Amino acid sequence: MEGRVVAAHGRQYVVELADGSLLPCFPRGKKSEVACGDRVDLQRTSDDQGVIEAIQPRTSLLYRSNEIRQKLIAANVDQVVIVVATEPGFSDELVTRALLAAESEEIEPLIVLNKCDLADKLAAARAQLAVFAGLGYRIVELSARDHAEDLRPDLHGHTSVLVGQSGMGKSTLVNALVPEARAATREISAALDSGKHTTTHAALYHLDADSQLIDSPGLQEFGLGHLDRQEIEHAFREFRPYLGQCRFRDCHHDREPDCALTAAVEAGHIDARRFALYHRIVG
Questions:
Q1: What dihedral angle (degrees, nearest 10) is formed by the CA atoms of 98, 99, 100, 103?
Q2: Percent share of the chain, pLDDT over 70
Q3: pLDDT value at residue 258
């Protein structure tokens, strides 16, 4: 049998079968590498349970990692929707890290600025996002409570994953775009045999026949331990015109003479704060 993972919580998964029914499944073996959005081969072990035998080849995998462990976020997505808000304040470093993870997997990023109805907070949030707008990242402004539909055209035809810090309004956005999301979450929770997982697991919802939306738990950090220095360099899209132009092939873009990136920063072509963050990440 084949299916798609529509919820992931620890080592327990909910798989949507071809007929639309949901089957709770466990991976075979102790170590699990299954992510929400994965297409899997499975075997039914009883009427209400199955075992995942294999993960089918992925088109993409978004995940974060540090020196201790990695956390899979979503598989087979072609768009990452990074949700920020006018309040509470958001971390532009976390936004940058999520963008780097998306760039490294060639997943199209989209930034959503939520709670734009809070007019007195809007200018400051726009100023914080200006560096990303200047790099060509798409930014959609909306109020999830009143105008979530403004985002629907950007989601059509994509399998998108929502990421962001807690409190940015991702759940409000999902519930507005997918009115049956609460029912789907209850169904998933019933399959997981618990209601406590509703906000702590990734879940996939169908927007229409051609569009899916994966909601992921709120993030407070986004480790990039799985990327090496060259991959991180390339993931900074503004670095790309200058890579390979330094005097030294193994240039660390720090104090080496004739560094093309350092020169670009001094000339104002690369934002100094982004360059400092690059050094923090690779340091």
A1: 130
A2: 93
A3: 97
pLDDT level of residue 132 (50, 70, 90 thresholds): very high
Three-state secondary structure along the chain?
CEEEEEEEECCEEEEEECCCCEEEEEECCCCCCCCCCCEEEEEEEECCEEEEEEECCCCCEEEEECCCCEEEEEECCCEEEEEEECCCCCCHHHHHHHHHHHHHCCCEEEEEEECCCCHHHHHHHHHHHHHHHHCCCEEEECCHHHHHHHHHHHHCCCEEEEECECCCCHHHHHHHHCCCHHHHHHHHHHHHCCCCCCCCCEEEEEEECCEEEEECCCECCCCECCCCHHHHHHHCHHHHHHCCCCCCCCCCCCCCCCCHHHHHHHCCCCCHHHHHHHHHHHC
How confident is the model at residue 9, as a pLDDT?
Answer: 84
Q: Compute, in degrees rounded to 10, the torsion defined by CA atoms 156, 93, 35, 20.
A: -30
* Prior bond of 179 cis (ω within 30°): no
pLDDT for residue 93 is more than 60: yes
CA angle (56 as vertex; 52, 57 as ends), nearest 5: 150
Q: What is the pLDDT of residue 185?
A: 62
Which tokens go with 35? Answer: 């992510």
For residue range 176-230, list pLDDT tens digits in order.
999 877 656 667 667 766 444 444 588 999 999 999 999 998 888 999 999 999 9
